[in-house]
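Minutes, methods subgroup
Present: GH (chair), OT, SY

1. OT presented the first of two proteins processed in the latest run. Sequence and structure tokens recorded below as shown on screen.
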Amino acid sequence: LPDANKEQTLNQLAGAAFGAAGQRCMALSVVVLVGAAGEWIDEIKAKAETLVISAGKHDKDLGPLISPAAKARVEHLIATGVEEGASLILDGRGISVEGFEQGNFVGPTIFDNVTSEMQIYQQEIFGPVLCIMRADSLDEAIELLNVKSKANIKGDVVVGKLGVEPGASFTATCSMKGSIKNINEAKNEPK
């Protein structure tokens, strides 16, 4: 949401999408930018471009994918995203790490203008690929996920305080696959 702490949100997006080279079950592969947050594309790309890819020495940001087959799958999905019309704004293919030229490296990759019909939305990529979708409002974002959700979004949409200014609270309700969840039930109560 546009009222989120921008720098903190950019850091969290980079970590969630690209940490562990995107090879974790809780990796973020799709983000819905709401309202003016859709203007953050250049900053998301710039943050991703600062990440260092290495073979795991000296605690760098991204290591290799687990196997040559995993690399081939991720690169195939990137190519498919381009073929299906998504805007590739950062391409992580073709990465070479000195001393490990034959390694399974894929750098941060970012797509914009992703739709729910695309394979990069429907499949769990399990690599450092972030797909960006946009919505004009929180209600539209929830509707986008509720109506058009495929394999990439499983279960209930649960949103915490992301995008809400400190001290603010709101409650919204959404349904997904027949279940109801309250979004951001946080209240400004002393602890």
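2. SY then presented the second protein from the same run.
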Amino acid sequence: DSHAPYNKNLRPKCDLPRFNVSDVDRIVWQFVRDMLSDPAMLTSGLEEARSRQDSRLAPLRQRKEIIESLLRENGEQTERLVDLFMIEAVPKEVLVERQKRLNDTAHKLKDELHLLDEQLSAEQANAAHVVELAEYANKVAGGLERIESDLNAKKLILQRLGIRVILDIEDGKKVIYIHTEILGQEAVRIA
């Protein structure tokens, strides 16, 4: 048999550095406390989140304007084509062929416009969510001392604020990336 029997005492060796969970918890919670305790930081973070969103949305809005313009132009071309047919300047075969191309183009443009509208709506919902998070953060900020020893309350706050943590090694040093939807991403280096 080419397969060795399973031995639960043999574990693969992992050479990755270890992060102390207590240290990570303490650092992340301190970051969250600092954020929640500083209304100016929250306001600034909210403004930056809006700015990031505006940057993401600008190309979508520009494309939407272009598509709407193309659809108007397509409609005008269709009207001109029908007018030319009515005065017998265009044969019926040409009318049918060009009308089909114009209709196909209009259909594709409308499909793309629909997708853009969905993307823009999703981004607007995301913006509303970030505002809700900032309001929640302001509400929670007043009761931080009461929950300092309540691990479940801290966990709930971290989840509600959408805190994500990435542990990494950079230049041989341990780094904790803390991401919030309000502030974006922050890096904290630890020894």
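Chair's summary of item 2: Residues 47 and 110 are 33 Å apart (CA to CA).
Next meeting: continue with the remaining queue.
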